[in-house]
Automatic annotation (TrEMBL):
Signal peptide: none annotated. PANTHER family: HYDROLASE, PUTATIVE (AFU_ORTHOLOGUE AFUA_2G14860)-RELATED, MONOACYLGLYCEROL LIPASE. This is Alpha/beta hydrolase. Pfam families: Abhydrolase_1.
Length: 236
C-alpha cells in the first residue's frame, strides 16, 4: 500500500493493475492500524478493486490515545472516533475524488460501526459489509453498559448517539452484508440482528444478507474475508 495525505486526511491505497471493480474503503477496529488491512487491501487490488484504508481519529498517526484498551479510554474515545469518522466522510470522499456510487464500505469491529453510520447517511453508496460491528448504536451501547455494570445512558448521551444511529435513518439501496462470529464476546450480536431486521423492514430494494460464522470469535477470519470478496464480486 502507498501512504497518502490530503489535508488532515491520511490514508493508504492499494491500486489495481486495471480497475474493474469498486473503490473499497476499509475501516479497522478500535486500537488497530491501517497497516492491519495491508494484505487484504492488496488482495482486493488483485481482484480489480481500488482499496483505500483511512487512518481513523485517535488511532494510527491521527492523535493516537495512550493505552487504547484501558476501559476508561475506550469509554471516552470509542464513540468519538466513530462519530468523527462519520462526520468527516463527505470531506474525505471529496478528497478522494470518487462518486458515492463507486464506493463500497467494509469495516471490522469499530470499523463496522463507522461503515454502517456512513452508509445510512449517504444513500448512493454501492455497498456495506460490516464484520463484527453494529448498525444499532443506542442498543449496542446499552448492552455494553449492562455487561460492564455501568449506569444507563443519560438522555443527552442517547440523543447524541441517536443522531448517528443507522436505526434512526434511511438505508439506501446498496448491497449489505452483515457478518458475525458466533462466539464474539466483544460486540453483542444483537446489534447486527436488530439492524438486519431494520433493513429488511425499511428497504424495498437492495441485497441484504446476514451470516453467522460458526466457531469464530471477534476477528476477521479467512472465511469472512472470502465471504466479503465473493460479495464484492457481485456488486456492479
Amino acid at each position: 500500500m502507498k501512504k497518502m495525505q490530503a489535508g488532515k486526511f491520511i490514508y493508504h491505497v492499494a491500486e489495481p493493475g486495471e480497475k474493474t471493480g469498486k473503490t473499497v474503503l476499509l475501516y479497522h477496529g478500535w486500537g488497530g492500524t491501517a497497516g492491519s488491512w495491508q494484505a487484504y487491501a492488496e488482495e482486493l487490488a488483485k481482484q480489480g478493486h481500488r482499496a483505500v484504508v483511512p487512518e481513523i481519529a485517535y488511532n494510527d498517526s491521527r492523535n493516537p490515545v495512550a493505552n487504547p484498551f484501558e476501559m476508561e479510554t475506550v469509554q471516552i474515545y470509542f464513540w468519538k472516533a466513530i462519530i468523527e469518522s462519520i462526520e468527516e466522510f463527505g470531506e474525505f470522499r471529496e478528497a478522494l475524488g470518487v462518486p458515492e456510487s463507486d464506493i463500497v464500505l467494509v469495516g471490522s469491529s469499530m470499523g463496522g460501526f463507522i461503515a454502517s453510520g456512513i452508509f445510512a447517511r449517504y444513500p448512493e453508496i454501492a455497498g456495506l459489509a460490516s464484520i463484527n460491528g453494529s448498525g444499532a448504536f443506542v442498543l449496542t451501547e446499552q448492552l455494553f453498559r449492562e455487561r460492564q455494570d455501568r449506569s444507563p445512558l443519560r438522555k443527552e448521551e442517547a440523543e447524541l448517539l441517536n443522531g448517528f444511529d443507522p436505526m434512526q435513518q434511511g438505508a439506501g439501496t446498496g448491497a449489505v452484508l452483515l457478518i458475525n462470529g458466533e462466539q464474539d464476546r466483544t460486540v453483542p450480536l444483537e446489534g447486527h440482528a436488530a439492524y438486519y431486521r431494520h433493513l429488511l423492514e425499511s428497504r424495498n430494494t437492495g441485497y441484504t444478507d446476514r451470516k453467522i460464522v460458526k466457531g469464530a470469535g471477534h476477528q476477521f477470519t479467512r472465511e469472512m474475508e472470502q465471504e466479503v470478496a465473493d460479495w464484492l464480486a457481485g456488486i456492479k
